[in-house]
Amino acid sequence: MRKVQFALFLSLLMLCSTLSGCFGEEEKPAPPEPSPFDFDRDIPETTWYHYAGAVDALNSSAVAAANITVNLTGDNAPFWTAGSYYGIGMSTFEPTIGITSDDNLYMTSWGNGPLGSTAIVQCSGLIEMSNLSDYSCVDTYDPLLPVPNSNDPYVYVDKWTDRIMKFDMHALLGMTVEWSDNEGASWSPPTPATSYSVQDHQTIGSAPYPAPLHATPWVFCINGNSEAPLCCTSFAGGNSWSPEVPGAPLGCNSGGLSAHIEGGENGNFYRGNVGCSGSGYSIYRSTNGGFIWTEHPLPTEESGTADTWNFEEAQVSVDDENNVHAMWMGADNMPYYAYSLDEGDSWSDAMMIAPPTDLVGTGFPVVTSGGGGRVAFGYVGDTGNDTWNGYLTVVTDAFGDAPLFTTVQLNAPGDPLDTEAGCGYNRCGGLGDFLDMAVDQHGRVWFGLSHNLQDIGIFATITEGPALRGNVAELTPIPTGGPETL
After folding, report:
1. Residue 193: its pLDDT value, please?
2. Residues 6+ positions from 7 with CB-CB distance below 8 Å
3. Closest to 220 in 3D by CA, of 251, 252, 260
4. What domains can be seen in the chain, in order of their start residue?
5. Three-class secondary structure of residue 16 per DSSP
6. Which residues lie below 8 Å from residue 471, measured CB to CB, with a gap of 6+?
7. Each residue of 442-465: pLDDT tens digit?
């Protein structure tokens, strides 16, 4: 009998030890680890945090499967981020943009200037506004004799001198250049830049390379129906221009279409298009003011190159520390990125930078940068049924082992920028041939676009998020724009 009682006692003891609360305190589950994405509010449905390859940074299983070692601290820490856009009150075509140190934004408006000329739209109050009523946009181009409207309008603001350059391309008749040193209050007489080749698809940039008659030389390249783009230089602030020279090594046969020229603090100029003999994409570099260009192939072996109208363009940017950043569209019509720490002589591995969402294709790539390793990318993307939206991606630690990319859709769901079939793969409404981006002195990125369904030029940006200049810190919030600003 005692043996039976003892056996029952042991059984009960073992059973009780498996149940919480029988002996001692109930064990509580460990609290969840704090997440760097625990913001004080919900993440917008149009914001994505991700790693290269569209790996969702909020999905720990996807991160583990991609074998990514997460380090979301320091410059790579996430910020609550949202995006929006703001209308300029006029149409645009190939919306090149510029920003001055007076915090004015500039964009071209084809045919809306005096006597049908190209308007240079100045938007003031937008960069640090607290209410939508704080900003206004007006045409600042009003000379005594306006230059007739051009095939392709173009505006560029020199980052080192604040000089605003207005370039008008007149097809077979050459290029005319005007400039303003007082925020568009007055303009120089027009200067003929070149007149002996076909003119198309121009791009202009400046850099602090030694120039005898102006603080910065200016270089522009055009598609002159030659084996490579044709480039001219002004060492006189636009008063006179050199003869045309090839924008690639002799015999390169890269084709004439070139992406935007970018100048660096060290005086180098860069531009991108198809590689020599038509292979892959390359960045072309000039270290002598635009007279000789060398080829620097991009790592496109895995991405391939897009089979679309604007396939020629590999966009390039130079950050404040002379690092070079390149962006292009791959064979899958997705955006790719690589960087160079040695002026284009070598490149990082290519990174696919689309967010983890339902994009089926992208186009019109453009890239800009601020401080070292802080980069922004812009493009349009289709979420299906030719619903074309604007996207802006920022990265604040591009050189880290696993850089975090933050992407925002700039227009709200139900407010597409275009619904034309294949818009991102072709010339498309006010988008024309290309788009443009720049970072202001406060570190906020601005993206020039067209809301094609309303035929209005727009400046798009992140309303809240990280600054791309100075310390990696939060930008001063600005109010959400959208359709009410059109």
Report:
1. 81
2. none
3. 260
4. 47-481 (2.120.10.30)
5. helix
6. none
7. 999 999 999 999 999 999 999 999
